[in-house]
Write a structure and sequence with these properties.
Blueprint (H helix, E strand, L loop, with lengths): L5 H18 L7 H11 L3 H16 L1 H11 L10 H16 L4 H15 L4 H17 L2
Helix pairs in contact: 1-3, 1-5, 3-5, 4-5, 5-6, 5-7, 6-7
């Protein structure tokens, strides 16, 4: 991985961790699974804590996060979304709901992850849903 901001790098690795966890049907946080991932990915020490916080937070909040995504994606069931799109949305929804990160940063980074790892339409799809969620949360 290039010289990314540590938080940006943590988000990218968290997406990879969530994708791997989902493909292994491990939809809860497992410290041993996390440690194996960190070792295999050779994660820098300054990124590990943020990566753990994001990955654990997303998986620990999965029911709430998935409910929020389902509520804003009227015509899309979670199961019909591509795995990358679904996990980018989960990661970003967790941050919008639970973290102190400015919404604009969350949206920008999620869109970039979707463009980098998803399909040609992923950036626009993620942008539309997260913008809707961010607006909804601002009005509360």
């Amino acid at each position: 991985m290039s010289a990314l901001d540590p938080r940006t790098e943590a988000r990218e690795l968290a997406l990879q961790f969530l994708y791997q966890a989902e493909s292994e049907r491990l939809l809860h946080f497992s410290e041993s699974h996390f440690q194996s991932f960190v070792k295999h990915q050779d994660v820098k020490s300054q990124v590990v804590t943020t990566l753990r916080d994001i990955a654990r937070g997303t998986l620990d909040s999965l029911d709430e996060v998935d409910a929020r995504i389902t509520a804003i994606s009227a015509n899309w069931k979670l199961s019909r979304m591509g795995s990358i799109d679904r996990n980018v949305l989960r990661l970003a929804a967790f941050e919008l709901l639970k973290a102190d990160t400015p919404p604009k940063v969350v949206l920008n980074e999620a869109i970039e992850l979707a463009k980098k790892y998803g399909s040609a339409e992923s950036g626009a799809f993620v942008n539309g849903l997260l913008d809707k969620l961010a607006r909804e949360l601002r009005t509360r």
